[in-house]
């Protein structure tokens, strides 16, 4: 079940799962030198030092540890941007 559907069915449970999701993934990003830019719903925008480190981060087993829970709305979906980051 995705985050939007979970929120529509039971917002309290969705918010609890969202916090678990964030607590699970933030250490993975840090371990790979990632910098969290922002979150939107259950998604993250994370800057990583290289494309190789981004792939390593996406494949990190710890990032997928909670995804097997029956009550989890987490669906691992990774998007990559190949290019130099632009900062203000």
Strand-helix topology:
Layout: H1 3-9, H2 11-31, E1 35-40, E2 43-47, H3 51-59
Antiparallel strand pairs: 1-2
Helix pairs in contact: 1-2
Notable features of this structure?
88 residues; 2 strands; alpha+beta; 3 helices; two-stranded antiparallel ribbon
Give a description of the structure.
- The chain has 88 residues and is α+β, with helices and mostly antiparallel strands.
- The chain has one domain.
- The chain is 42% helix and 12% strand.
- The protein has helices at residues 3-9, 11-31, 51-59; strands at residues 35-40, 43-47.
- A two-stranded antiparallel sheet has the order 1-2.
- Strand 1 and strand 2 (43-47) form a beta hairpin.
- Mean pLDDT is 78; it is low at 70-75.
Uncertain parts: 70-75
The 3D shape can be described as: elongated
By helix and strand content, what is the structural category? alpha+beta
Beta-strand portion reads: 5-15%
Tell me the helix content. Answer: 40-55%
Overall mean pLDDT stands at 78
Number of strands: 2
What is the end-to-end distance? 36 Å
Main β-sheet description: 2 strands, antiparallel
N-to-C order of helices and strands:
HHEEH
Major sheet: order of its strands? Answer: 1-2
Report the radius of gyration as a whole number of Å.
14 Å
What's the number of structural domains? 1
Number of helices: 3
In short:
This protein is α+β, with helices and mostly antiparallel strands and 88 residues long.
